[in-house]
Write a structure and sequence with these properties.
This protein is α/β, with parallel strands linked by helices. Helices cover 50% and strands 14% of the residues. The strands form two sheets. The chain has a six-stranded mixed beta sheet, sandwiched between helices. It has a three-stranded mixed beta sheet with strand order 5-7-8.
């Protein structure tokens, strides 16, 4: 692990496990950590053998948000705008990764940690996980695009409680709301899901991720040409032929992303 950033990555065949490890701050992220996390996702996205990424936190917490003690947002001006752009790029890279990203969530998942979870494709949460966006408690704000994604993923009732009251939501409530899947061991559950995803057809998984995110963010018409092109590529792919032949042969398919 890079102790300066608190971000580490381990590979398990076609699966990457990224860990946030800043225990003194409950894994809250500062500038070097945000930069390292974005660089990590970008690096993994360039690897054509990568099939899934799991992101979790060490020492009993997922991520307590942006580290307010070291955040450059409080400085205002150009430095604050550059820092906000850095964080936004991390969210964009999670969305644009050509593979699913799974959040394994224990303990605190607050503020920017919640925002990271919103930009993951799946969330596996412990019963005692604490999801929160405490802006109403500290006199801050939550960006409109994140409010929209929170409402669409969680529903208006629970999103309102999180945003207007600042009340935390536990893992069991998140499971009932359809926001997360419950697991006593979120990391084990996330790695099991990643293993299953890695056996699926990569071209299809990538296209379906793009489609889901386009609908989620209200950009379906804008992204329709790109998604249609991905679907056309699937129609003529070797993997499509392999899937059909494997079905006829009554054997598991072996997909190669081609």
């Amino acid at each position: 692990m890079d102790t300066a950033t608190g971000i580490s990555v381990r590979r398990h065949a076609a699966i990457a496990h990224v860990t946030i490890d800043r225990p003194e701050r409950r894994n809250a992220l500062h500038g070097p950590a945000w930069q390292a996390l974005g660089d990590c996702v970008e690096m993994l996205s360039a690897d054509t053998e990568m099939r899934c990424m799991v992101i979790g936190g060490a020492h009993g917490h997922f991520c307590a948000g942006d580290d307010l003690k070291e955040s450059e947002l409080k400085l205002g001006g150009a430095r604050a705008r550059a820092y906000a752009d850095l964080i936004a790029r991390v969210y964009a890279r999670l969305d644009e990764a050509p593979f699913p990203v799974i959040a394994a969530i224990n303990g605190a998942c607050m503020g920017a940690g919640m925002s990271i979870a919103l930009h993951c494709d799946f969330r596996i949460a412990a019963p005692d996980a604490k999801f929160a966006v405490p802006v109403a408690r500290i006199g801050d704000y939550y960006p409109l695009e994140l409010c929209a994604r929170l409402v669409r993923l969680l529903g208006a009732r629970e999103a309102s409680a999180i945003l207007m009251l600042g009340d935390p939501m536990d893992g069991e409530t998140a499971d009932r709301a359809g926001f997360a899947r419950l697991a006593d061991d979120p990391l084990a559950g996330a790695l099991d899901m990643a293993d299953a995803i890695s056996s699926r057809a990569p071209l299809v998984v990538h296209a379906m991720k793009r489609a889901v995110n386009a609908v989620l963010d209200g950009r379906l018409e804008q992204q329709r040409p790109e998604i249609d092109a991905m679907i056309e590529a699937i129609k003529s792919s070797m993997d499509r032929n392999e899937g059909r032949q494997a079905f006829l042969d009554k054997r598991p398919p072996v997909f190669r992303g081609q």
